[in-house]
Amino acid sequence: MTDVSGMGSRPDDERPVLTNRQGHPVYDNQNQRTVGPRGPATLENYQFLEKISHFDRERIPERVVHARGALSYGYFEAYGTFGDEPISRYTRAKLFQERGKRTDIALRFSTVIGGRDSAETARDPRGFAIKFYTEDGNWDLVGNNLAVFFIRDAIKFPDVIHALKPDPVTFRQDPNRIFDFMSQTPESMHMLVNLFSPRGIPADYRHMQGFGVNTYKWVNAQGETHLVKYHWMPKQGVRSMTEADAAAVQAHDLGHATKDLYEAIERGDYPEWELLVQIMTDDEHPELDFDPLDDTKVWPENDFPPQAVGRIVLNRNVENQFAENEQSAFGTGVLVDGLDFSDDKMLIGRTFSYSDTQRYRVGPNYLQLPVNQTKAACRTNQRDGQMAYFVDTGGENPHVNYEPSIRGGLREAEYAHPDEVGPTITGRLTRKRIPRTNDYKQAGQRYLLMDDWERDDLVRNFVANLKQCDRAIQERMVWHFLLVEDDLGLRVGEGLGITPDDVAGLEPLRSQDLTEEDRDRLAKLG
Ligand code: HEM
Fold first, then answer.
1. pLDDT one-digit tens code per residue, 275-293
2. Which end of the chain is more exposed for a tag (fewer CB within 10 A), N or C?
3. Alpha-carbon separation of residue 435 from 76, 185, 186, 292, 503 (angstroms)
4. Using a 6 Å cutoff on CB, does residue 68 contact ligand 1?
């Protein structure tokens, strides 16, 4: 007679035995405990209830943005110089100093708007977030593949993301909502000209650039500060997709970029990027027609030539997506000695947001997980909380989890550096736009720098999306585009049946300051 009550294993099977989380051997993983073979089931059925209730909790909240991503590991190798000079002239950060010095890294690429299983062919910025496991603790550089951003003040982030995410009623991404917001946000023009060009759909993660986007500072041993911007250039080259290319890929694969990255690393074809840095003296730069702390602007390369300071190589895949990719946590607050924040109003807001969301998304002890843990010594007086995995003691007296103490415990480090000697700041508390917003000029320059086919693609994409929008939104966008560059405004207008005459009467928005050049362009419309 066949035994249906549990299979057990054969005595000659040498594989390890299945247990539950308490270490109890599992004798039957096929049948729950019941009164007789046909049930009913019993409530003291610990093995079954533990298995199901753990499964019920297998998902954590996905990232509110950048939910879909891929993580891999590798190293950063420093060049030790900035142009012809030793890099120590500008920063004392240890990872940059010696030529050939290697630092382990984890890099997470991502899309922004879609959920965890969404298509990787979306027209969407791509995240480019690196964790450097340095001897001085972790440094996270959390960037994107496009050099600028939609907004310049962190207080607008929930709005821009709500406009880009699916409609709360229909759950569909809707150009009418996206361009409603953008048409009222002139600072977004530079980003839109990038995003709706072919660069808005990178071919995959290996063939795209990365940018820190926000402005940071470097600090040298004398405490002198410089403003810096970071850029990552792929050795593989840059490749993009048109809407038609993307549709063809998406028809058979939603996760082509993750697959491409994983398979390249598995076959030993390790992707590589060079890190280039632009530098400015740490002041307001009144000679520029933009503010160096404005993340809707790039710094002209002729005036601020990017210098290569190192390279990264990715050479190892994750062993478990959930533990290493889903639970990884990057943030702009995570800096090491020799690196600092600038007063960029986006950067300051981001710095609050990342660890705040990670305490909610992963839990208060997210920094104890291997992917997030520093490889430097870590000894705090922080204790307990959900999922505390270990107590990072280190003081000679385990009773002392406070500071100061004369009974042992941890002491403060000695600060071996002079105070920073950057600019001093005075001002009244206020809520004002930065001066020199100059929302159109760089967007226009970007348009003029494109190849013909890229411009054609950009116009086609704008027209296709704006056709789905209300007339008032179309008119305002054509008005903006005419201020960006005549040709762009005329071509998008033509696609929508809107002439400069139709929009000449529109007033500037309350949220914008026009330059002389903008006013001249406006005057021409009428
Ligand atoms: C992820 C907030 C702007 C790049 C995130 C997350 C939040 C967030 C809450 C999810 C983090 C997590 O769950 O671990 C913000 C806010 C911004 C802002 C408030 C503006 C004030 C930017 C900008 C960039 C950027 C300008 C590009 C330079 C990223 C990247 C990720 C991310 C790459 C994914 C990190 C990862 O792979 O885990 N952001 N963000 N964000 N953000 Fe931002």
1. 999 999 999 999 999 999 9
2. N
3. 37, 16, 14, 11, 27
4. no
